[in-house]
Amino acid sequence: MVLEDNGRCPSGVSYLLENRRAMKRSFPGMFESIGVRPVEHYPQELLRCCNTSPPAAWPTQPSCC
């Protein structure tokens, strides 16, 4: 039995992105000074991944919104 198909943006990643944005506004420079890696490129990387590796059974590239 499948309750949910998480083939779209993984659950929770939007919380990570928003939290990071809020923390960077509240504490400018903190993340860079302690070596925390950036996550702002995640949506573009996810789209790139979707567009470059579709399953062979799909007739066209996936539509990522």
Structure description:
The structure is a single chain. The chain is mainly α and about 60 residues long. It contains three helices and no strands. It has helices at about 15-25, 30-35, 40-50. The longest helix is centred in the first third of the chain and has 14 residues, at about 15-25. It is elongated, with a radius of gyration of 16 Å.
Q: What descriptors fit this protein?
A:
3 helices, 0% strand
Low-confidence stretches: none
Profile the largest sheet. Answer: none
Oligomer category: single chain
The 3D shape can be described as elongated
Q: Give the end-to-end Cα distance, rounded to a whole number of Å.
A: 27 Å
Q: SSE order in H/E notation? A: HHH
Radius of gyration: 16 Å
Count of beta strands: 0
